Amino acid sequence: MDEYLKNREMELANQELWESHAKWWQENFSEGADPEYEEQILPIVEQWAKGHTSVLEVGTGEGQVLRRVLTTTSDSLRLVVGLDPALAQVEVAKTRSSGVSFLRGSAPQLPFLRDSFDLVVACLVFEHILEVDEAISEVARVLAPKGTFIFLLNHPLLQTPGSGWIDDHILMEQYWRIGEYLTEDVSIEEVQKDVFIPFVHRPLSRYVNLLVQNGLYIEEMLEPPPPKGFLDQAWEYQEAASIPRLLALRLTKR
Ligand SMILES: C[S@@+](CC[C@H](N)C(=O)[O-])C[C@H]1O[C@@H](n2cnc3c(N)ncnc32)[C@H](O)[C@@H]1O
């Protein structure tokens, strides 16, 4: 089968998994349930979103990021749109937020005209998207010149599949193991019993080069240490306190 069709088919299968497990995400990562969102992710987006007037969030989930953007930037905002392929996310988003238009759609085919937004946000989404070339090109197309792209990912270097804290009692060594960083890889992870979520790993250079090819240039990059609320959840997290879990990029379209 040709590469394009194979990717298309897998992309749709991945979206089906998100449709089935939307509730798992909503219960565990939204409305205050997750310290990384509360203490780190939402404050970063809030800070970087200030002053923009028309906002699109790609892969909005149940809408928590846009709710935060709305509460802090409402004076200047005139258009706020959240897009997600999962009906089970969009339906909940509509009940939890006001002042936002939510619709179904997928990053590789954004249903908007060129230059429609001065801010596009993608928060922990691209690591679930197979058609990354098309998706970044679409973000660049709908973003107006000088517009901002806020791009948050699970850190692709230090959180590669197979990475994690190793406490070797035989060799008496403790260290953070890095998985196969250079290998692009799609895996379906069982994140909780019977909950299967697709993850796509790609090296950081793959993202950065693609962004630059599409006229998106980095203005600021954050690799914050895991926040206190997260470290307090388990002793082994404390051991990895200097290993960032999040990568946050603020880019401008030139
Ligand atoms: C980890 S959740 C993040 C949700 C939200 N951005 C947040 O931070 O709360 C990932 C979301 O990406 C969505 N998603 C998966 N494939 C997508 C695609 N091709 N285009 C846009 N969103 C997608 C999923 O349906 C899911 O809601």
Task: Give the topology.
Blueprint: H1 3-20, H2 22-29, H3 35-49, E1 54-58, H4 64-73, E2 79-84, H5 87-96, E3 101-104, E4 117-123, H6 132-142, E5 143-154, E6 164-168, E7 173-177, E8 185-192, E9 195-201, H7 204-213, E10 216-222, H8 228-231, H9 235-239, E11 246-253
Parallel strand pairs: 1-2, 1-4, 2-3, 4-5
Antiparallel strand pairs: 5-11, 6-7, 8-9, 10-11
Helix pairs in contact: 3-4
The structure holds S-adenosylmethionine.
Residues 14-15, 18, 25, 58-61, 64-65, 84-86, 89, 106-107, 123-125, 128-129 line the site of S-adenosylmethionine (SAM).
**CATH-assigned fold name:** Rossmann fold
* Gross CATH architecture: 3-Layer(aba) Sandwich
Distance between the termini: 37 Å
Indicate the low-confidence ranges by residue numbers: none
How would a textbook summarize the main sheet? 7 strands, mixed
- Name the bound molecules: S-adenosylmethionine
Task: Give average pLDDT, whole number.
Answer: 94
Tell me the Rg in angstroms.
18 Å
Number of strands: 11
Shape: globular
SSE string: HHHEHEHEEHEEEEEHEHHE
Amount of beta strand: 25-35%
Counted by DSSP, the helix tally is 9
Helix content: 25-40%
CATH class label: Alpha Beta
